[in-house]
## 1
Amino acid sequence: MKAFLKSALISALFASACVQAQTVKIVGLVELTGTGATSGTNFDNGMKLAVKEINAAGGILGRKIDYSSSDTQSNPGVAKGLAEKAADDGAYVVMGPVFSGSILVSMAATRRAEIPNFTGGEAAAITQQGNPYVFRTSFTQSTAMPKIAGYIKDTVKAKVVDVIYVNNDFGKGGRDLINKALEARGIKVGADVSTEPGQVDFSSAVIKVKQSGGDAVFVYSNEEESARLLRELKKQGYNKPVIGETVLTSQKVIELAGEAANGAVAHVGLTADAPQASVKKFDEAYQREFKSRTDHNGLKGYIGIYTVKAVTEKIGKFDSKAFAAAMKNISLSAKTTPGLLLDLSYDANGDLDRESYMTKVVGGKQVVTDILPPVNKK
């Protein structure tokens, strides 16, 4: 009997090892609850859709993707613990967190384990620390803010701009860079208003902006807070340009803000409303799978997984260190890997470059008004 049990145990362990050898482990650290739930859920869904498609087509180098996601609860401390667990579990690549405050804390664990780590975080500080294993699925703030400041100067022709931002790593980083970019173009910053994550009442913030008398307001916050702020701006009769970056014209903000979102303008790195056929195809597939539309985070998660596929196939093996090295100054083609949706490139710091968009909310829908070329396009 003992011999039989021993033999059965050995067989089970062997079978488990064989299954692991036939798969590649990718772990998602995502905000499924808390203030980042909208962003994290969309990011997670985008990854799940990409994994489903890739596995149906045979996987990566013949291996199916074994994807699992864990909830960071929008808490940096929880994110750090989950990153350490992902490293202990032998993850090939870690995806997330999305929030800048969480990735800034958790990426030390993946760096120690020499595991490539993709993030949706936009804070400039993420890729300014010399971490060779961290890569963005979004534009860095230092890329996006000069584009917005140029739009404010050339199109809006504002002389004074008020700024309302959320008081966290994401918000403070964006505030510092938009202020710098505005001032570099001779635009004065008027009211400089800090708000809190999860804040409900924005009446005081709007009063400060109205009293400032600026020509426009730049809004930089999370989805729920941005929607509340838009409603308060409308309630108080604010009728000057409301400008943002990525979040302000996202699907969730439009749903939450309703008519108050109309007229808002934002630069976005990705949008499901982009006119390219590849993005439209993704949008249709996402809606079929999840019975809802996604914001930019779903696209970031989807493209992130296909980036893992493209780079792994480029190096021809599952080697985390070789993967990270190959990411430096790489250019990837959507023609070769359609799941990338758009051609993209990475620099030596892990920051990406690709086409982006100016958008406006019209009649309750995000409309692309212009396609901006990659920053480094010759």
Note: Confidence is low (pLDDT under 50) at residues 8-20.
## 2
Amino acid sequence: MTDTQKDTAAGAVPTRSGFVALIGATNAGKSTLVNRLVGAKVSIVSHKVQTTRAIIRGIAIHGSAQIVFMDTPGIFKPRRRLDRAMVTTAWGGAKDADLIMLLIDSERGIKGDAEAILEGLKEVHQPKVLVLNKVDQVRREDLLKLAAAANEVVAFERTFMISALTGSGCEDVMDYLAETLPEGPWYYPEDQISDLPMRQLAAEITREKLFLRLHQELPYASHVETEKWEERKDGSVRIEQVIYVERDSQKKIALGKGGAAIKAISTAARKEISEILEQPVHLFLFVKVRENWGDDPERFREMGLDFPK
């Protein structure tokens, strides 16, 4: 039993817990904010839009409260089956949460996808808070106008102005959530920061390195799966992962000239996975062509998404 739980058992400190869905347009900074609030990397970040594909749960302790953040896929106008699955997952996560945080990129303001999300939130009945991100890039008078415009559309409980990148304003968000979530026992052990299985987290890390290395060259249609995970007697881990692409031309991009790209991706991913596991990692990456993997129900299950008809 933790110190907080002992105090609670003695009647001194009531614990609180709940699920907070973080929603917003693509590249609003949701994954960066979740990692900031959790205090560790639980969600991958890249410049490529729609990086987050399924709901990633990051778990934070603040005072006597356990806050489970649900980093949802960015909401946008879907064009493909994978897009539809991601948007449906995002709205489903919002409706399952105790509280919804709408993150808006202050530089972009309320237009396009952000405007459509505000309209959609009218139909969602959970308590909602507004978080304006990247406020260090925008004049205060423009921020106040943006906050007023958003609150005219949806009745937010509170409005916060933050920078997910620097952490400015994030402590106020945590204080509010810790006071607002319902009283009750914690859902997860105190030292757990995510509910993502390690095999899946390792695949997500490799996918991030793939995007960071090749985001201008490799199309969106790529996917990483961990196929083998072997704990070895010397304390190291052998991991085999497959990068799926849709065409031979994409495979050549992922491999790079003389294998340079795949080697760099593997080195970066291995280093980060090893740091998280706190043990040596032997990472082997393979690139396979699987045409139209975006129409394969099995791939959707691997990503934690429902396969839309």
Note: The radius of gyration is 20 Å.
## 3
Amino acid sequence: MIIDEPLRVIGGRTARLAPGPDGVRLTPDDGPPGELFVGPGWADAHAHVYDGMTEIGVAADEVGLATGVHLLGDAGSAGAATLNGLVKYVIPAAEVRIRAWVNIGSYGLVHMRETADIRDVDVDATLAAIDRHRDIVCGVKVRSSGVIVGAMGLQPLQLGRLVAREAGLPLMVHIGEAPPLIEDVLDLLGDGDVVTHCYHGKTGHPWRADGRPSPALDRALNRGVRLDVGHGAASFAADIARRAIAAGFPPHSISTDVHVRNIRGPVHDLPTTMTKLLACGMPLDDVVAAVTRAPRDILGAAEPWLDEDGVVRHATVFRLTETAPPHRTYKDARGVILDPQAHIVPVATVRNGTLTAAGPG
């Protein structure tokens, strides 16, 4: 593949991608840029790619480099009893890089009420699994909503917090239907922890009508808790996102929560989710930061995308266009249709010195 036009580099300058003996290089260009943008390789901090093992896993490469994504965070598909399989069979077979949030439920998402029974939570086994796979595990995942935890209430979150603190790792916490109450969930989180599904529209969400955070969320944000989109099949309300962004509370990271029940809609992929956040009022540079710098930091995989001499380590080339990809309708998780004026469409990726086409077709 060859891209023979100047590109807008995220951050402002114009450059070209040029082949060289040590891989693709970014070289300055004085001409007017074309319609393409280039920046660090995209990362999705919340996906489900334990294909063949869990109820909801998708093939990692279906939502990886082909959609512009270089790095995926599998968000709790595997627990202590099933993590070895993810590490041994799924991760080595994928072209896209994968990090794992280990589920506090020992069997992960083999079934969808993984923490409703205390017998399915083993603190010591989870700590041992983390120690075996420190190069893969980025944190601990707890799904803290009533349809999952049942009568266990806050206990899975409390145990997940214990494991995360013992391991020196962050928590990613799924929020949704009460119980437990969102105030009680948020008060257990600290610096570096992540609230995913931050803009869900279910009863008890942590936002005021004017887009400002509730007192509990405000306290959490002041402690350094991070907001992650985690669109999912039922966890993104565009009106809540739009009001929060307008009030000055955009997400730290934009992620998909992609799985078999939403990959054909409403989620589709990361660029579709990015387009929705753009339509909700986030500036383009902030959208890109929320799928590059922020999620890499969350996943413990921060690295420069450019060497000092201009050699590209990892990058995503994309187009900002007025035309939507074929057969693409933008809906939030409640079925509300968005009408983006600009669409983010991946064109190519650069990885390991190689430029490869991406995007539909």
Note: The mean pLDDT is 96.
